[in-house]
Task: structure prediction
Amino acid sequence: MRKFDYTSPEIGPKVKKLIERDKKIMFGAHTRTQEIPLGVDYAKGARITDLDGKTYLDFGAGFAVVGTGHCHPEVIKAATEQMQKLIHISGCDFYYESQVELAEKLFEICPGDFEKRVYFGNSGVEGIAATLKIARHYTRRPRLISFLGAFHGRTFAGMTMSGSKKIQRAHFSPLIPEVTHIPYPYCFHCIFNETYPKCVRKEFDGLPMPYCLSYLTEVMFERLVDPEDVALILVEPIQGEGGYIIPPKEFLPALRKIADKFNILLAFDEIQCGMGRTGKWFACDHVNVIPDIIIIAKAIASGFPMSATVSRAELQDPEIDERAWQPGAHGSTFGGNPVIAAAAVASLKIIENGLIENAAEVGAFLKAGFIEIMDRHQIIGEVRGQGLMIGFELVKDKKTRGALPRVITNNGKNIKEVITGECFKRGLIVYGAGFNSIRISPPLIITKDDAAEALKIIDQVITFVESQLL
Ligand SMILES: Cc1ncc(COP(=O)(O)O)c(C=O)c1O
Result:
């Protein structure tokens, strides 16, 4: 496979100036690339306009955050009205309407017909950190289980539970102790070399399970870890950063059964896959599996920062169960902020007013389009998708599923960089995911026309890149 000449997207003078100023002030660990040199002036719906007046179709939604689209007028209205009344008071210490209203609404949509409690934080990873604390406190057990390929955020809690890329952990040790990672069912590259559905030949307590889960029950629980020491299993119902990986339908039910058998808490990180993106409120709703704890963030408030850690009531309320965390054991100054809570209430209303159905319908149209593109091209090995959470995996060869070389251009770029860069040149924003995948996570408001426009661009880009490589 030959390397080819590729040039990064050109930028206009105003964006260029902004990037030059930014370079002198921003931390060096950010993941900006030359391939998406986006200097935003304003954004509306699914379109972003840069400082030089060029408009892009946004199929990234600020990393799956602006589900209702950029600057939705009803979100702005709700936030503005709240701002005129109260901006901050601290929701862990005092009372106000928008926080309570949001919690009540969330309890209606979160899976599980039982009493619930919520902790509001400011980012996804704070919801993850709270989940670890809830689980250890309630169970009085130390061990935490997570998955290879998982991404749960950047603090010590998030970083430890993630199993995504070594750069995210290098030189930060020691991490949180007592965490074990087990294989996620990434069937396209099964590390056991099994094939789904043939691999569903194991059972746990009479329930079929994919072979990879037997690593937990037959290897880990037999040789390494007493399940009675395990507080929590944390899992993304669809892996996001890992490459938009949808596990087989048997996976979450089997995990639920395993957790129940050993009184382990099961938490779903729905930070990226939740809030209607997959065509249901939550990805776990597709298989009707109910977690003990669900962590929601990103799209919850249409771009305002917030997370909600919703659980069975007894896990967070010591008046119900004394094993739950006690007053003072946790909290946040800004969590549940009045303005953000009002924006979240508005966002929930907008999403339930047709966006979930739209995600399912336009998502199916998009996925069919991607499959059609895949069938015509050698370098797309798999299209995975649920609603408007769609990923496609790039390969050297469909049959061997081998990865493309790490560097495919003469100036050192990899396949994800080239594809995102070529899309950007043509006015489309998409991001990479995992090692070799592209993720599609547009606002849930997109139309079939938007989808057709994006498909046309991606088809052109794949055709171009393939012609350079093969
Ligand atoms: C599945 C998942 N969990 C956790 C996080 C961390 O969220 P935040 O960046 O808001 O802390 C992310 C962010 O991308 C995510 O996708």
